[in-house]
Amino acid sequence: MNAPALLPPPVPLPCRICESPTYRLCGGCMQARYCCQEHAQLDWTSHEAQCYRLPAPPSTTPASALPCIPPTTPALPSTAIRVRAFLFKPDEQCERFIDVFFNLCLPPERPSPVPFLQEYFPVNAGAGSLRSKIIWEGGTAERLRYPLQVWYCAEAVARGTPVNRPILRLAGGRHTSLCGTVVALRFSGTRCIDYCDIKDLDLTRLGPWFAKF
């Protein structure tokens, strides 16, 4: 059996293997800290007995209540590419990494990639409700070499509910109108024509932007 995927906690804590500060924690028990998946796998033989893995969900249980069980991915075209993104769920304590797919082969009339995000947003949120904004500057107003893109539900923002606890924490407890589920991705360059894996450091750039939203 493989160790669960790692999730980022709110503050850096020492890895169980090398004691390096890390934002990641075990996706099963949400307690053990590891700096990388390799160290989680290395410690799995001793940690498995302590890891409180959640059971497979019944059909009536929302996937958002089971952070250690990855959501199912819809059928994707053969040209789809996978990158790492941040998911901010209102009913979870902190943000976590997810895998997001996007199609690199785009029609001429659509210069920017479109990620497949349907599984992370409410079923009743139609295509017209999904919005995105690009973050060009970091917390110190420097121009970002790798701009960030934030996807959110316009209906949730208009309603002002549900409050997104991970975003509120990153915003330093200051009021923000960015409600509902949010997904953050990282562009591979300033041309914004494809994505790359988002980094832990990007949280420091997202926080000030969330506070100003």
Polypeptide structure, described:
The chain has 213 residues and is an alpha+beta fold. The chain is built from 4 helices and 10 strands; from the N terminus they run ββββαββββααββα. The strands form 3 sheets. Strands 5, 6, 7, 8, 9 and 10 form a 6-stranded antiparallel sheet that branches. A hairpin with a 5-residue loop joins strand 7 and strand 8. The N and C termini lie far apart (42 Å). About 10% of the residues have low confidence.
Secondary-structure map:
Blueprint: E1 6-7, E2 13-14, E3 21-22, E4 25-26, H1 37-47, E5 80-88, E6 96-103, E7 130-137, E8 143-153, H2 154-159, H3 165-170, E9 182-187, E10 195-196, H4 203-212
Antiparallel strand pairs: 1-4, 2-3, 5-6, 5-9, 7-8, 8-9, 9-10
Query: Terminal Cα separation, in Å?
Result: 42 Å
| Low-confidence parts | 53-74
Structural class based on helices, strands and sheet pairing: alpha+beta
Helices and strands, in order, run as EEEEHEEEEHHEEH
The main sheet comes to:
6 strands, antiparallel
Overall pLDDT, averaged? 76
Share in β-strands: 15-25%
Quaternary organization:
single chain
* Helical proportion, percent range: 10-25%
| Number of helices, counting only DSSP H or I runs of 4 residues or more | 4
What best-fitting shape do the alpha-carbon axes yield?
Answer: globular
Number of strands: 10
- Tell me the radius of gyration: 18 Å
